[in-house]
Specification:
By secondary structure, the chain is α/β, with parallel strands linked by helices. Helix content is 30%, strand content 25%. It has 10 helices and 10 strands. The strands form 2 sheets. It has a 6-stranded mixed sheet, sandwiched between helices. A 4-stranded antiparallel sheet has the order 2-1-4-5, covered by helices on one side. A hairpin with a 6-residue loop joins strand 9 and strand 10. It starts with 34 loop residues before the first strand and ends in a 5-residue tail after the last helix. The chain binds adenosine-5'-triphosphate (ATP) and magnesium ion. Adenosine-5'-triphosphate binds next to helix 1. The site of adenosine-5'-triphosphate (ATP) has 13 residues, from helix 1.
């Protein structure tokens, strides 16, 4: 099992990593799930604009956690903090604590590239490279210098993403010739090819029809036995269907500045959020009266 690499050998965070962050056996009913991410007092700024205010939550191993809420409430912003994708936005600044197991992901000696290898991401619009199907999946393992048989890694990843049977006879053909739903599954195969522990999915089905959406949802349920998944979705039925826990965010105007800033309103078991939410803002949103 790889560990997060650190630039400064004096700060050996790999010592603090569990040797295998993903437990060997899935939890059985009643077991307390392992915490994968601990978020405390998370604030994200774009320049002077504080987009996300004081978010705190925990994400559990081998669960699907859904982020829901109206547009602009900071779902993508929070999601991008989990694998330091906000680092790629010049004006973004992250404050607070974000632990992956017990590693501080924002410690100056943590290598963001190593973080993204362990914590992969799938975006709302399928974004395959203009390369062959094979090369799309082989790209990450090659760059990461992973050992092993590339043919085997590609096959396993495509099987894991439920795409193998559809593409096994055309691996050398362009990925751009696949349908939207196939392209999204290819992007999932590309993400899992580097053997991450976590998959972050930002509206992965927003560009897909209901059948392709159903395929991806089924895939997510299967993948849960191996991966921890955090999904952002505007589709509340989807959150209710696939997730174990749901976090509802909203955006509220700051009294002093009038700026609309994202807040976590409520985070609980998905069944409870959708049947008996604590906060009236959650209820208004899930019943379609707001947002
Ligand atoms: N790159 C950026 N530069 C400046 N402001 C940004 C940037 N990305 C997001 N924001 C702002 O941060 C706030 C939260 O945006 P974010 O994209 O996280 O919301 P969201 O909940 O994912 O919305 P949606 O559901 O529309 O995708 C918004 O006010 C947005 O305008
Ligand atoms: Mg978003």
């Amino acid at each position: 099992m790889s560990s997060l690499e650190v630039n400064n050998p004096k700060v050996s965070m790999s010592d603090q990593l569990p040797s295998s962050p993903v437990s060997e056996t899935p939890p059985t009913a009643g077991d307390k799930p392992e915490t994968v991410f601990t978020v405390r007092d998370l604030n994200v700024y774009y320049g002077d604009f504080r987009a996300v205010v004081d978010v705190g939550l925990e994400v559990y191993e081998r669960e699907i956690t859904a982020f829901i809420g109206p547009s602009g409430c900071g779902k993508s912003t929070v999601l991008r903090c989990f694998n330091r994708m906000n680092d790629l936005i010049d004006i973004a600044r992250v404050e607070g604590q974000l632990l992956f197991h017990d590693i501080d992901l924002y410690h100056p000696d943590v290598d963001p590239v190593a973080v993204r290898r362990r914590i992969g991401m799938v975006f709302h619009k399928p974004n395959p490279f203009p390369k062959s199907i094979f090369d799309n999946v082989a790209f990450g393992p090659k760059i990461a210098g992973m050992g092993g048989d590339l043919d085997e890694i590609v096959e396993t990843s495509l099987k894991g993403a439920g795409l193998w049977d559809e593409v096994k006879d055309r691996l050398d053909k362009s990925a751009l010739g696949l349908s939207g739903g196939q392209q999204q599954r290819l992007c999932i195969a590309r993400a899992i090819a580097v053997q991450p522990d976590v998959l972050l999915m930002d509206e992965p089905c927003s560009a897909l029809d209901p059948i392709a959406t159903g395929t991806i949802e089924e895939l997510m349920r299967e993948m849960k036995s191996q991966y921890t998944i955090v999904i952002v979705t505007h589709n509340m039925q989807q959150a209710a269907r696939v997730s174990d826990r749901t976090a509802f965010f909203t955006a509220e105007a700051d009294e002093a500045t009038g700026q609309r800033r994202g807040k976590l309103v409520e985070y609980d078991d998905t069944g409870l959020i959708f049947s008996n939410p604590n906060d009236e803002r959650t209820e208004a949103y899930i019943t379609g009266r707001f947002g």
